[in-house]
């Protein structure tokens, strides 16, 4: 029987993020040698990378970095929350974020193709995938620039790393108003800054649905234009940041709060893990 303890199993799981059964098998094969067991897990993991490509990676974390007027946001995914809260995965995500900042990546592919210590970021992820035994991927990257940029990270569970992240760019005002709006974005999940950014096809679809719904409800024909316009405006009020009701004061829109603070929102990015 291999010479190892429950503490050895726990330590190797924390170090590699591999499952308990895989860890025990590796320790058995390595006769209790943790260094050799780690290598076995890595080798077996590499063989399984292709098999894991079709798996769903809906857990993970969001990480942010702000330097002056530039904010970078990345979402790094894995398969389970066990791995997501592990030191090894968190350290990998930090490394990925640092690389995104270094190369100025504005999308995931640019980051994955970039060179990190002599290999692509994708290759680094594949190696981590092999060691940890789960599919790991960079799902999204955003780069936001402005006169001022703030970030906000939110934990949906105290046991997990941040699951929601925001970078918000603005001019004027102070850091407090920037942070307040970033927190609002995290909570109310707007999709665009202004209504001009909403795709015209989306607007037309909302008009069509609003009109069909109003007719189904038996609304008078003469009232349809007003009803449709009101419901489309309701769509904007739900999805456009500047037209949303402010989290801290529902009587005001976000644009009014910014104006009162002498500030103007210019852009933002918001990620929620798996969403």
Automatic annotation (TrEMBL):
Query: According to its UniProt record, where is this protein located?
Result: Cytoplasm
Question: Which PROSITE patterns does this one have?
Answer: EF_TS_1, EF_TS_2
Lineage, top-rank taxon, reads Bacteria
* Alphabetized SUPFAM superfamilies for the sequence: Elongation factor Ts (EF-Ts), dimerisation domain, UBA-like
Task: Drop me one GO molecular function for this one.
Answer: translation elongation factor activity
Q: Which UniProt keywords apply?
A: Cytoplasm, Elongation factor, Protein biosynthesis
Q: Where is this region: Involved in Mg(2+) ion dislocation from EF-Tu?
A: 80-83
**Which InterPro entries does the annotation name?**
EF-Ts_dimer_sf, Transl_elong_EFTs/EF1B, Transl_elong_EFTs/EF1B_dimer, Transl_elong_Ts_CS, UBA-like_sf
One cellular component term (GO) for this entry is: cytoplasm
What range(s) does the Translation elongation factor EFTs/EF1B dimerisation domain occupy?
Answer: 71-274
Q: Pfam families under this entry?
A: EF_TS
* Chief location: cytoplasm
PANTHER family, alphabetized: ELONGATION FACTOR TS, ELONGATION FACTOR TS, MITOCHONDRIAL
Q: What does this protein do?
A: Associates with the EF-Tu.GDP complex and induces the exchange of GDP to GTP. It remains bound to the aminoacyl-tRNA.EF-Tu.GTP complex up to the GTP hydrolysis stage on the ribosome.
The entry's family comment says: Belongs to the EF-Ts family.
How is this protein named in the record?
Elongation factor Ts
Q: Which gene encodes it?
A: tsf
